[in-house]
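Consider the tokenized backbone below.
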């Protein structure tokens, strides 16, 4: 029996008595938690969803998903379609197209009107395909790619460790001024001052990606021994506030270069 006075301690996972175990899939879980942030979904300059009563649904082997109460969705802009999908852990999803700002986006929203008994109570909620929206906002900050996972975090820690980056025997960078970025489930990334990179090895790239925990990344190519390797270095010119320590620094793709730490 869990002791009530200790429930705020330890890992902040939902009370285990609220997490349903699926008989045919031991260890697979689906659960929801309330989101106190204001969540907005924008399409064509219109907020098609705007809520402080959203849920975040966490499911094994999936990215987290925001579910918004139907009463906080512009249902007048939604049209039911013939499309549906089946999930063994939630039930049958029905889909809706959205019309806003002169645009129609097919099958942008889905809901489980009759979820299976093991699923959390999400019948009065709906979710949206992330990349079909123009913008997602938590309060007034734009969020990219997917909802931020409450069980994932980043730590940006300055370090005086001796970091040497090389490729094909050529030193690309050497620094004792790294910021080490520790992100749940990923390799440690080493963000170095641009001044500690060997002159002439980097060239600009048009490539860009987005991260829900860091922001929009730009890229550089690497040229070594006359051969260009595309997009092996990235940087955040204007990261989200939680990652401001890596602003303007460059990070080499660990998996494609050699990194030596303190020899």
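A designed sequence for it:
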């Amino acid at each position: 029996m869990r002791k009530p006075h200790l429930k705020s301690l330890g890992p902040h996972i939902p009370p285990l008595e609220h997490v349903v175990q699926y008989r045919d899939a031991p260890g697979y879980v689906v659960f929801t938690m309330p989101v106190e942030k204001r969540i907005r979904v924008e399409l064509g300059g219109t907020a098609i969803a705007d809520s402080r009563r959203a849920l975040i649904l966490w499911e094994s082997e999936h990215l987290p998903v925001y579910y918004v109460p139907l009463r906080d969705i512009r249902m007048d802009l939604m049209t039911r379609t013939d499309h549906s999908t089946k999930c063994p852990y939630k039930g049958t999803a029905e889909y809706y197209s959205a019309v806003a700002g002169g645009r129609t986006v097919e099958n942008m929203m889905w809901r489980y009107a009759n979820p299976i008994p093991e699923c959390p109570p999400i019948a009065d909620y709906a979710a949206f395909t992330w990349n079909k929206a123009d913008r997602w906002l938590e309060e007034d900050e734009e969020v990219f790619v997917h909802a931020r996972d409450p069980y994932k975090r980043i730590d940006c820690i300055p370090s005086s460790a001796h970091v040497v980056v090389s490729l094909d025997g050529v030193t690309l960078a050497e620094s004792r001024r790294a910021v080490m970025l520790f992100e749940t489930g990923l390799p440690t990334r080493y963000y170095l001052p641009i001044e500690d990179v060997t002159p002439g090895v980097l060239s600009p790239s048009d490539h860009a990606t987005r991260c829900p925990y860091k922001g929009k990344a730009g890229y550089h190519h690497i040229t070594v021994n006359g051969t260009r390797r595309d997009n092996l270095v990235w940087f955040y010119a204007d990261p989200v506030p939680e990652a401001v320590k890596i602003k303007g620094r460059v990070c080499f793709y660990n998996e494609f270069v050699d990194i030596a730490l303190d020899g």
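Residues 4 and 15 are 11 Å apart (CA to CA).
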